[in-house]
Write a structure and sequence with these properties.
It comes from Lacrimispora xylanolytica. Keywords: Oxidoreductase. Its EC number is 1.2.1.10. InterPro entries: Acetaldehyde_DH_acetylating (IPR013357), Ald_DH/histidinol_DH (IPR016161), Ald_DH_C (IPR016163), Ald_DH_N (IPR016162), Aldehyde_DH_dom (IPR015590). It holds the Pfam family Aldedh. This protein is an alpha/beta fold. Helix content is about 45%, strand content about 15%. The chain has 16 helices and 17 strands. The protein has helices at about 5-30, 35-60, 65-85, 120-135, 150-165, 180-190, 200-210, 230-245, 265-275, 280-290, 305-315, 355-365, 380-385, 400-405, 475-485, 490-510, and strands at about 90-95, 100-110, 110-115, 140, 170-175, 190-195, 215, 220-225, 255-260, 275-280, 290-295, 295-300, 325-330, 345-350, 370-375, 390-395, 440-445. Strands 10-13-14-9-8-15-16 form a seven-stranded parallel sheet, with helices on both faces. Helix 2 (about 35-60) runs antiparallel to helix 3 (about 65-85). It is globular and about 85 Å long. The termini are far apart.
């Protein structure tokens, strides 16, 4: 194919991958639970063995984040994920209810298309490969061009481990020549049954517009509220640990800190003690000019960067040992760029009078990342319940956004695809798991005699047609004609329409009477 242009070759490659993936999906759909588990164990082991090298490869290729943290994400998306899903029932009979006479049966969806972001390229491949196989499906990946090499390598690691354990050829595929043409081809080709889109808003929107089922995620803009009853030292430690994890590349990471006037001094003091640097207004403006372009769109050059890299580029001096840069904000939206998502080591900082004002501020901040995640640090359970009403699918309590939102430090399903619900434009509001990649068929036994169902129903009063109803069809027509006459003087054109409608109603009534 060397005589064909790159874009044509990439499209043909996508078609070939889709065809082989569909064949593999049909084959693995017949596998037993034991066969699936053997494949998953092999994949988890391979993921663990390659966690560090792929973390280093991803950090080097993209320039985002920290290799060690990326390695841990790979560990979470392989070893920890396997331990969590290994006993999950996703094939065959899921449940049987003898009382209702119903049986739920799982059926794989088929071939899945996985769109991979540059911020979490290898861990996302591990996660989507494991969840696809667990639910009896095949998967083909479309990598981000800036992370194509590490994405491909991660897919190869998963593929080779799966096939070595008995999976069919073509079970895990990955585009080697990424282009818009190949991505569009996969999204719209008949072989792909569903799309899991993890990436920018444009890509997610395209996935939902492809004409087939899609699971997409929206942008995050998670506020972290340190309520007055919180253990401030622990809250600050947790927030910094989360925001510096892979330098803030996880979309559930904190984007803003909210404290109250009553604990403002303690929060500021603790942030400074633990490596937070409060920028001046001038310094904040310089950093914002670097981080954002075209309004509040994040500049890819500073995604997942250390505060030292950002400060040096902005020409500001920061203390040695600084872990996060903090900019005080007085508002939300246009004119306050730090109130938007920042997948890097920069935080906005707000002070409010009380929890009610914190509620309002949280809602305003979440409008720029609606449906995703927020966190609250408190010892007051009543406040937690009140904050559960916020437009976020994950309300995290006394834990970090990065680790908590992905299920690493909480009881949530371990996932690198976090649903944002309908308010965030997503078809799911949960952490995506294998259960989202199966169709559930229901077998339903008859419980009542269809021939006598009417007369044997004690809750149905009009059984023989003799019961007088409050409003008969003829009464309805008569009432309609009276209204029509009353309106005649004011709206002649409307009368013409009403006459047609009345005639139609009469025809329907006659038809109901069999005339």
């Amino acid at each position: 194919m060397e005589n064909f242009d790159y874009d044509l070759r990439s499209i043909q490659e996508a078609r070939d991958l889709a065809r082989s993936g569909e064949a593999a999906a049909k084959a693995i759909a017949k596998y037993t639970d034991a066969q699936i588990d053997a494949i998953l164990r092999s994949m988890a082991k391979a993921g663990e063995e390659h966690a560090l090298c792929l973390g280093e490869m991803a950090a080097e290729e993209t320039g985002f984040g920290k290799a060690a943290d990326k390695a841990y994400k790979n560990h979470a998306a392989s070893t920890l994920l396997y331990e969590q899903i290994k006993d999950m029932k996703t094939t065959g009979i899921l449940s049987e209810d003898h009382a209702t006479g119903t049986i739920e049966v799982a059926e794989p969806v088929g071939l899945i298309m996985g769109i991979v972001p540059s911020t979490n390229p290898t861990s996302t491949v591990f996660f989507k490969s494991m969840t696809a196989i667990k639910s009896g499906n095949a998967i083909v990946f479309s990598p981000h061009p800036s992370a194509a090499k590490c994405t491909l390598k991660a897919a190869e690691v998963m593929r080779d481990a799966a096939i070595a354990a008995g999976a069919p050829e073509g079970i895990i595929g990955c585009v080697t020549m990424p282009s818009m043409g190949s991505t569009n081809e996969l999204m719209k080709c008949k072989e792909v049954a569903i799309i899991i889109a993890t990436g920018g808003p444009g890509m997610v929107k395209a996935a939902y517009s492809a004409g087939k089922p899609a699971i997409g995620v929206g942008a995050g803009n998670s506020p972290a509220y340190i309520e007055k009853t919180a253990n401030v030292k622990e809250a600050v430690k947790t927030i910094i640990a989360s925001k510096t994890f892979d330098y803030g590349t996880i979309c559930a990471s904190e984007q803003s800190i909210i404290c109250e006037e009553s604990n403002h001094a303690e929060v500021v003091s603790e942030l400074k003690a633990q490596g937070g640097y409060f920028m001046t207004k001038e310094e904040t403006d310089k950093v914002c000019n670097l981080l954002f372009k075209n309004g509040h769109n994040m500049n890819a050059k500073f995604v997942g960067r250390s505060p030292q890299v950002i400060a040096a580029a902005a020409g500001i001096q920061i203390p040695e040992g600084t872990k996060v840069l903090i900019g005080k904000q007085e508002g939300v939206g246009e004119g306050y760029p730090l109130s938007y998502e920042k997948l890097t080591t920069v935080l906005a900082f707000y002070t409010v009078k009380d929890w009610e004002e914190a509620c309002g501020l949280s809602i305003r901040l979440l409008q720029n990342g609606i449906g995703h995640t927020m966190s609250i640090h408190t010892q007051d359970r009543d406040k937690v319940i009140k904050f559960a009403a916020k437009p976020a699918s994950r309300i995290l309590v006394n834990t970090g956004g990065s680790q908590g939102g992905t299920g690493i430090s909480t009881g949530l399903p371990i996932s690198f695809t976090l649903g944002c619900g309908t308010c965030g434009g997503s078809s799911v509001s949960e952490n995506v798991s294998p259960k989202h990649l199966i169709n559930i068929k229901t077998v339903a036994y008859g419980l009542k005699d269809c021939a006598t169902i009417v007369e044997n129903d004690p809750t149905f009063t009009w059984k023989n047609g003799s019961t007088k109803t409050a409003c008969s069809p003829s009464d309805f027509v008569s009432s309609f004609e009276k209204k029509e006459t009353a309106q005649a003087a004011s709206c002649q054109s409307g009368c013409d329409d009403n006459e047609k409608l009345a005639a139609l109603v009469k025809e329907i009534v006659l038809a109901m009477k069999g005339q």
